[in-house]
Each structure stands twice: as structure tokens, then as C-alpha cells.
Write a sequence for this structure.
């Protein structure tokens, strides 16, 4: 039974697509829609080669670079199936991930089910996936503690959760009922790396009355940064990414303040939450920046 459309935005990631795209070819998947955000590399040629082995791939190219939120919205317009999985060009999913999410969606009568999101640090970890997942999955006291809005900087969907639990939002790697996108879309005003665009989308989905669950048995894994960035400066990338992280987090908190206050039973406003986020972020990131500077000076 084919019932899932996978939507993947892509920009200058031709070197990664042979690693990532095949993982999305799973039993329930009827099509993989790749939206090329006007790449300047050989993405189009790479997709043509992949289509020979995987005819379910559909390719669309944006007329101009419009960032991933616009590319995702464009891809969603073309889906044929009742469920949409939101994938990434620099991530792959483990076998049976789509089935796990679908089963949870049906069992719990959910509208969205998010997967565990993990990040590799070394390319050699690809050869030991099960071990990597086990070593990088956190154990938490409770889902409520793991997703505390007062600890927003530390929220990561890398923890184990059995059975699946209802959550206010989930990571980008999620199975979503197509009908939701009839009225709710990705906000194209998130700038730069569009950090928080998925948190914003799913927060608005929750606010609209839809149910979101988190199922850690399904896993999406981001490739290590040294595979993704290639020739780019790691320090330059980190600085730019941090700027947009701070700006977009401010936008997210301000935009969704009322829902967050209601859900978390807090009177704290977006400014206070953002300042707490900034304090935590600067404490953690400053050490990482100095470490990168030190390694470049060696």
C-alpha cells in the first residue's frame, strides 16, 4: 500500500544525495519529491541518475533561490498521497522509519508523528548505525522535562520514549496528514538557515487543535558537518548559523507566545524566554567557538 509522499528541499547538495535519497525508498512511500532550490552545482544531473534506479523520484526546480521554507511549500503542492513525510537532503532515515510513524499515527489517531533526530560527528559512524543510535540516544526523566520551554536551548528530539507521547511540537522529520497543509504552511519569513521554521509550523499545528506525537523508534540521522560543508569554513558557518538561530528563535517565541503560555501554564513573556535562551546559548557556544579557533591555529 503506497500512501506516503516524501518531500525533500535541496540546495547544492548533489554530493550528498546518493547517500541520503535511497533511504527514503521504503514500503509505504509512493513518491519522493525533490525540490531543487535553484542549485548551482550538478543537482539536476545527480537526480537524473538516481531516477534510473528509483523511478518514484519526482524532480522540481525553483525558478530562483527562495530558501527551504518556500521549497517545502512548493513540494507539498505536488504531493499525490494522503500522508507527507518531511525529509532532508543531508539526512537519511533508518529502515522501517516510515512504517513506524504510520503505525503510531493510526494507533493513536494522531495528525502528526515526529521521529527521533540524531546528528553524526564522524563519517565513520555510518558503518555502525545501530551502535551510533544507542550511544547518542538520551534517557530522560519525562517528556515534560525534556521539552520544558524554559530550557528551550536544550530541547532536542534525541531521547528515547516508549510508548510514543503527545508533544506540543516535533522535529522536522515527521509524518503529517496532507490535509493539514491545506491551511497551514511553512512561514517563508524565517531568515537565513530558517532555524525554527519546523518548530513554528508544528506549534501552529498544535494551536489549531491537531494532535502531535513523538515516536523514538523511528530515526532520522543527519550526516556529519564535514561531509555537508565541504570547502566552507566551519567557524564562518557556525557564526552565521548562530546569528540566524538567535534571530529566528526571537521571532518564534514572539509569534507563538500565547499558545506557549497556555500550553506550558506560564505567564512568562517571549522576551524573558528569549533572554534565557540567549544566556544558555552563549554559555555553550562560546566554548565551542574557542575550540574551533584553537584547532585552526594549530
Amino acid at each position: 500500500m503506497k500512501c506516503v509522499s516524501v518531500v525533500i528541499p535541496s540546495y547544492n547538495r548533489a554530493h550528498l544525495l546518493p547517500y541520503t535519497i535511497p533511504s527514503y525508498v521504503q514500503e509505504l512511500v509512493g513518491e519522493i519529491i525533490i525540490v531543487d532550490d535553484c542549485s548551482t552545482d550538478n543537482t539536476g544531473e545527480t537526480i537524473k541518475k538516481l531516477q534510473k534506479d528509483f523511478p518514484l523520484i519526482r524532480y522540481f526546480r525553483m525558478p530562483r533561490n527562495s530558501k527551504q521554507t518556500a521549497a517545502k511549500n512548493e513540494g507539498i503542492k505536488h504531493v499525490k498521497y494522503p500522508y507527507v513525510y518531511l525529509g532532508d537532503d543531508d539526512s537519511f532515515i533508518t529502515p522501517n522509519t516510515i512504517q513506524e510513524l504510520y503505525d503510531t499515527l493510526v494507533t493513536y489517531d494522531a495528525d502528526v508523528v515526529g521521529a527521533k533526530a540524531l546528528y553524526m560527528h564522524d563519517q565513520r559512524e555510518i558503518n555502525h548505525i545501530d551502535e551510533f543510535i544507542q550511544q547518542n540516544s538520551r534517557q530522560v526523566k519525562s517528556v515534560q522535562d525534556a521539552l520544558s520551554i524554559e530550557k528551550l536551548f536544550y530541547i532536542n528530539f534525541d531521547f528515547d520514549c516508549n510508548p510514543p507521547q503527545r508533544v506540543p511540537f516535533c522535529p522536522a522529520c515527521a509524518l503529517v496528514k496532507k490535509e493539514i497543509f491545506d491551511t497551514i504552511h511553512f512561514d517563508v519569513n524565517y531568515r537565513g538557515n530558517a532555524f525554527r521554521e519546523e518548530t513554528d509550523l508544528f506549534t501552529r499545528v498544535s494551536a489549531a487543535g491537531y494532535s502531535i506525537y513523538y515516536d523514538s523508534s523511528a530515526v532520522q540521522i543527519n550526516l556529519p558537518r564535514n561531509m555537508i560543508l565541504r570547502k566552507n569554513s566551519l567557524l564562518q558557518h557556525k557564526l552565521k548559523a548562530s546569528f540566524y538561530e538567535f534571530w529566528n528563535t526571537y521571532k518564534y517565541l514572539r509569534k507563538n507566545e500565547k499558545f506557549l503560555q497556555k500550553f506550558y501554564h506560564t505567564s512568562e513573556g517571549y522576551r524573558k524566554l528569549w533572554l534565557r535562551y540567549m544566556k544558555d546559548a552563549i554559555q555553550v557556544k562560546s566554548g565551542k567557538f574557542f575550540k574551533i579557533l584553537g584547532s585552526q591555529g594549530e
The chain has two domains: 4-228, 234-297.
